[in-house]
Give the backbone structure.
Amino acid sequence: MSATRPGRDAGQYRAAHLHLPDGWLSPGYLEIDTAGIIAAVHADQPPTWDLAEVRRLDGFVLPGMANLHSHAHQRGLAGKAEGGAGAASGENFWTWRTQMYAFVERLSPDDLEVIATQAYVEMLKAGFTTVGEFHYLHHDQNGQPYANPAELSERILSAADASGIALTLLPVLYTRGGIGKAPSHEQRRFVHEDVGKFAQLVEHLLTLVASNPVWRVGIAPHSVRAVTGDDLAALSTIADRDPGMPVHIHVAEQTGEVDECVALLGMRPIDWLLAHVEVDDRWTLIHATHGSPEELDAVAASGATVGLCPITEANLGDGIFPLRDYHQQGGRWGIGTDSNVAISLVDELRLLDYGQRLLHRRRDTLPATGQETVGGPGRRLFDHALMSGARSLGQPVGAIRPGMRAGLIELDPDAAPMLGHRPDTVLDGWIFASSTPVVRNVMVGGEWVVRDGHHIREREVLEQFRAVVSRL
């Protein structure tokens, strides 16, 4: 694995429209240093700049979005697990999971790397510049560690490197198959029976990512069902190894999960989690779809982020998160692509908003909290997901300001959905009124990885992906 090449596109830029935390500059000027960091932002062109060296971006330039929850390997299953087999109980999350487990059994390390690279290329083209990979595939097809216990984690790092996306790798701890249940045969590739071995994996990964400025490592207890209270205590010790280390967990995704926790633990899953570990702003609770009002008020007060994955949650029939009430309590939330059945930043935000409109039968999805940014509902959605996603992944992104990594996207002003839009409506146009791609250029860490809507390696990556999914 080679480190991402920072600084290739360092220099001085003039953007026709530049998104800032408190509004827009039209035009705006920024300097990117050779480490891929934003060195300065200006409302006027500095007199010391040489006009011949200034690069012009004539579109709408925004910070790239953080995708806070991905299972990259599931991109290879997209569209192949939609049901139709006539399951006696009907098609639901649990029948889908059976098909996903069968798919995982067939994956080789090479397959994983190819599928993940394709997923990351698609994320970049969609406007995601950073991804949190909730990585639970650790062992070989027999459930045994590879000669290199970090084999599959390193394949994820290689995929991120090949695509150019910034990565927070979240190795998953999975010690049981359910509350009080031994892991099933189908879960054998996921399980670490020895938390000490998991700790060694994390230490190894921390060493590896130190060589790359756009990589970070966190940890992820899979779920309340898949770990014990003692496991969580051990993970807290691991997290203390790196101050600010992100900690992610699936929780309250399904009503069946809530019922199981109440029956066997005597508490709802979020309540149980809050009672057994200090949940703070390092934590991201993925889904939390069926959290009670009291649980979600406590999550909001803790400073944790809720990770919402609207396309996957709709595809699996999970339910709709009570975003309006949670947001009104000041709760943090970001977006992820989860199963990667479809990879689209704009569709995640649109479905999130439209689900709330349908639920509440009104169009003002996010109520005023007194901390609004400028612009309409599209800007409010985008900016909140931007801020919370960056915090969730522990990455220096989420705003165009000095000291932040240069993770940028440029929307094409000549794309049909952008025509006639000014900065104050452009995010409404993109999120609510586009059905064609409008992301023209994408930069990660000072390097353009998407140009004119095409990833720099997309043909090569697509051919490798074609060969793998045609065989699986």
In short: The longest strand covers residues 11-20.
